[in-house]
Amino acid sequence: MAVQLFLIAPGMNEALREARFDDAGPVETRAEPLCIGPRARVVCSPSGRCRATAAVFGLERYEEVPALAGCAMGRWRGRRLDEVAAAEPEAVAAWLGDPGATPHGGESLRQVRARVAEWMDVLAANDPGARVWAVVEPDAIRAAIAHALGAPEEVFWRLDVRPASRVSLTGRAGRWNLQLDTQVA
After folding, report:
1. Which residue has the higher pLDDT, 177 or 31?
2. Does the domain spanning 3-71+108-179 belong to CATH 3.20.80.10?
């Protein structure tokens, strides 16, 4: 049986609006509680905005999963992208162009993808048939999609993740699929 994995991006907040390397603060998103079913497992990135988003969707009981955290931004944490780009243009260019770069002293996008991929593959191998709802940082969603599709690392920045959006993946040991949910009437 395949695992169903529903990834929910955090709601809009001031840090996202300002393109600031920060994952804390309240979210502005308002939504109806999700009907996830009694057997569903709920997990959450260990960030403030993901915890706040989980509460907005009525997902108050969840397991925090460090593997689903956003990219550790090192000395850039709390700063806006435009500030960092003005002060360190070569470093930002390296970070945006090389998935293995860590000019901020934190974590590379390659490392983010590896830890998210490992979590997904363990989930598929150990919990077949599970329905898992995960409120996670956009970085983790990008990494999950790239892993599911077997896409090259360079695709990371080409995946737009909107606030409070959902991505559905199905997987079994060794294989994941992206499920497109939107229907046009």
Report:
1. 177
2. no
